[in-house]
Design brief:
808 residues, twelve-stranded antiparallel beta sheet, single chain, six-stranded mixed beta sheet, alpha+beta, 23 helices
């Protein structure tokens, strides 16, 4: 007993001396050290048992110790309980994983974690910010009790360091086993590829590196899978995963309250500290922490550099000839940030060489990057990682897929070729391709700065202004780079000095100023709201500064330009007819093969369908004007009856009538042996389904309640039926394409009759009325002098209608 007492006394004496040697400690730190010391005396071990001359150590956030295949974290006790962001990303992956939209650098999961002491263990726990409360209030206890945080992993404490300021744990099992919470292989992938298990014999820790603010772990995992995305005979999926853990700021950035009138990505939580009669749902915008170096100068209105620049590093794999365009796409935002008072706020850089910085890594979460991915996918994305407590963006990785420029070349030819001679080639000039890439990068950087798509921005400009050289060169083709308005398809042959490619716009300056300008002399997010409201109200009646993007709003459609869809699509199709007539001359006649002709013809059909879709959006469309109650006007306004009727007549002429100009035998006979009629029906059916969509029909029914100038849904059915069955009112034969369309219309009417979600509405009644009318109409038409196939067709249509009306 004396020996045990002596050991305990000696241990406590050493701990006490260690604490005193470091200066004054908090009561919380003293408790941590006492618990650890007491625990370890039950199983005494020496630091030198784990860290010795054969150990490879790496100092940083935590000190990492490597002993052959064993990895130890030496966690400072001051970091126990500190919040850290854990980001799981794919570093390398097999071809085809995720269907082409998952790539090296893709973010699989982002979560807040804490390392906590519990008796003789350290627990790695997830922390959620979905529900919060001020920790000084009694309700905080209830929030904590009703949001128990899951434990990812539990580690035995092996020992302390020599001065008792840190504990050692073995993390080998965490990073070498299949822990679902941090896995690079999602549950959907496991199901899709029929993954059975992780094979430990082919899985290992590649490396663990510690940096001042973060730790980077690289894992190589091999799974047994019955249906892997590639190399199916191997029956395995091998991936390389990067785990980035970064210490979150001790003092979170002051959040800015979200306002739906200005577009920003957001973070949200439910705050139970509210004095109201319910929990308060709060949303904050996501943005980088920009703080002026000279706050006094900033407050005087001078341009000031931020304390910390936003820096993007270019992937070393980026082709040399493209680098300047990518850099320009980033640097274009410098002028925008000047509107918010910051100069040189953002910049693109070439990463340092190994000689300049041997520690630099594109996987290091401290560095944002623009990755160039070898993939056939045609896309680019701009994701970011943010602090869930405040919305502060910590890091982002823009991803550019190699084949994306081919999409831009094709659309440049199809959408602008009629009015733009330089687009009439498969070898688009480098400077023009570079300008397209520059604007794609600028668009993705916008996402990484916190800005979502703003599809209402293209509606801000009058259609005919897009035919003006002076206007388009100054203002572009949409009010923001964040719209999907890629090309000016409105400009006509003969229009001069036209800008055909999108560019930055006035909304970009407005949104960045609203989100990033520092407001002086405020102590809370709530105190900012009055100023933020003023910035919005100053621009409220100007469509250039409007934000919108709801699917029911025809003024906020993707790929649309101009404030009149009927007029813009008329111009667009007029141009497209010129392109179709010259497509062989610009492609196969030059290359002596039909591959590009086939690809571009398929995409031409898609462009035509897109123009049609813009017009179809007017029918049953509702404009959304985000407002606060003190502003004049209503939030939701239905499209006028006249515009809806005009749109339907346009569709009957430009979609549902057979489009002979799309059926050029010189193209069709050289690209495919069959499928022409099916392709045309599919495209026509797409617009038919748009018009007769359940939610659209319900909106048209609702319009009668709140708007005098509405297009009655029964009138729309009548007009659509009369247009599609136009031949039935005359002694006209029905061609193959129209016969297919008419059968599809009847089939769609049958679907509406049996739709359970429509049974208690007027829709079945209206459909029944139209089918009864069609029976009379088609019976008469069948008796007229028309060809045999038209008679057969009408007889078949009547049989289909009878089965819908009387299924028994």
């Amino acid at each position: 007993m004396k020996k045990i007492f002596l050991l305990i006394s000696l241990g406590l004496f050493l701990v006490s001396n260690s604490i005193n040697a470091q200066g004054k400690k908090s009561k919380k730190d003293e408790d941590k050290q006492t618990i650890v010391a007491t625990t370890l005396q039950k199983n005494p071990t020496n630091y030198s048992d784990f860290v010795n001359k054969n150990t490879i150590s790496d100092k940083g956030l935590f000190t990492i110790h490597e002993n052959k295949d064993t990895y130890l974290y030496e966690i400072p006790k001051s970091y126990l309980g500190k919040e850290m962001l854990l980001v799981t990303r794919l570093r390398e992956l097999p071809s085809g994983l995720g269907g082409g939209y998952i790539n090296a650098g893709s973010n699989i999961n982002t979560q807040v974690v804490v390392w906590e002491q519990f008796k003789n263990k350290v627990l790695l726990k997830l922390k959620s910010y979905n529900a919060v409360a001020n920790d000084s209030l009694p309700i905080f206890k209830s929030v904590k009790a009703n949001n128990l945080e899951p434990i990812i992993f539990a580690f035995d404490i092996k020992t302390q360091n020599n001065d008792s300021t840190a504990v050692l744990i073995d993390v080998t099992s965490l990073f070498s086993s299949d822990v679902r919470a941090i896995s690079g292989l999602t549950n959907s992938f496991r199901t899709q590829y029929k993954v059975r298990r992780l094979d430990p014999s082919r899985s290992f820790i590649n490396s663990i590196k510690s940096y001042p603010e973060n730790i980077e772990v690289v894992q190589n995992f091999t799974y047994e899978a019955d249906e892997p995305p590639s190399n199916s005979s191997a029956g395995t999926i091998t991936i390389s995963v990067n785990q980035s853990m970064i210490l979150l700021p001790e003092n979170p950035m002051t959040p800015r309250i979200y306002d739906k009138r200005v577009g920003y990505f957001t973070i949200g939580n439910v705050d139970y500290s509210s004095e109201a009669l319910k929990a308060d749902e709060k949303r904050y915008i996501r943005r980088w922490r920009l703080q002026p170096k000279d706050e006094a100068a900033y407050n005087r209105g001078e341009l000031v550099e931020p304390k910390k620049q936003i820096v993007y590093y270019l992937d070393p794999a980026t082709p040399l000839k493209l680098r300047k365009y990518i850099k320009q796409g980033v640097d274009d935002w410098q002028k925008v940030f000047e509107t918010a008072g910051f100069k040189n706020a953002i910049v693109a850089k070439i990463p340092p060489t190994k000689e300049e910085d041997p520690e630099f890594s594109m996987e290091d979460i401290r560095y944002s990057s623009i990755r160039y991915v070898a993939s056939t996918t045609r896309n680019a994305v701009g994701p970011s990682v943010s602090d869930p407590r405040s919305g502060e963006i910590i890091e982002s990785d823009i991803i550019w897929y190699h084949n994306h420029l081919r999409s831009y070349r094709n659309r440049y030819l199809l959408e602008t070729g009629a009015a733009n001679p330089s687009a009439r080639t498969l070898d688009t000039p480098d400077e023009e391709i570079g300008e397209m890439m520059r604007m794609v990068i600028a668009h993705e950087i916008g996402h990484a700065l916190g800005l979502p798509h703003n599809m209402a921005a293209s509606y801000a400009y009058a259609v005919d202004s897009l035919r003006s050289g002076n206007f388009t060169q100054k203002y572009g083709i949409a009010a923001t780079i964040m719209d999907y308005a890629r090309y000016n398809y409105v400009a006509q042959p003969g229009d001069k000095n036209i800008r055909f490619i999108r560019q930055m716009g006035p909304y970009d300056h407005y949104a960045i100023n609203w989100g990033y300008r520092k407001i002086p002399n405020v102590k809370s997010p709530e105190e900012e709201v009055k100023t933020l409201d003023t910035w919005i109200s100053d621009k409220a009646n100007n469509p250039i500064y409007r934000f919108g993007g709801e699917s029911f709003d025809p003024s906020a459609q993707t790929e649309s330009v101009g404030n009149d869809q009927v007029k813009a699509s008329t111009y667009g199709i007029k141009n497209l007819k010129i392109v179709a007539e010259n497509l062989s001359k610009w492609t196969s006649d030059k290359t002596n093969n039909y591959e590009d002709l086939s690809e571009l013809y398929d995409e031409l059909l898609g462009v035509w369908s897109r123009y049609a879709g813009h017009v179809a959006g007017n029918i049953g469309g509702v404009y959304e004007f985000n407002k606060k109650p003190m502003e004049s006007g209503v939030v939701y306004e239905y499209v006028s009856k006249a515009k809806q009727q005009e749109s339907l007549q346009w569709l009957l002429k430009n979609v549902f009538e057979t489009q002979d100009w799309l059926l050029d035998k010189n193209i069709l006979a050289n690209i495919n042996e069959s499928g022409y009629t099916t392709n045309m029906l599919n495209l026509q059916n797409r617009q038919l389904n748009v018009l007769l969509n359940e939610s659209r029909l319900k909106r048209m029914l609702d319009a009668s309640v709140i708007q005098k100038d509405f297009y009655p849904v029964e009138d729309m059915f009548r007009d659509l039926k009369n247009g599609i069955f136009f031949e039935a009112n005359y002694a006209s034969n029905v061609n193959l394409f129209r016969r297919n369309l008419q059968k599809a219309f009847i089939e769609k009417m049958g679907v509406l009759m049996s739709d359970k979600n429509l049974q208690n509405t007027d829709i079945p009644s209206i459909v029944r009325r139209e089918l009864d009318t069609m029976k009379i109409q088609l019976t008469i038409a069948k008796s007229r002098y028309i060809n045999k196939i038209s008679k057969y067709h009408y007889a078949d249509c009547l049989e289909k209608i009878n089965k819908i009306l009387d299924p028994k």
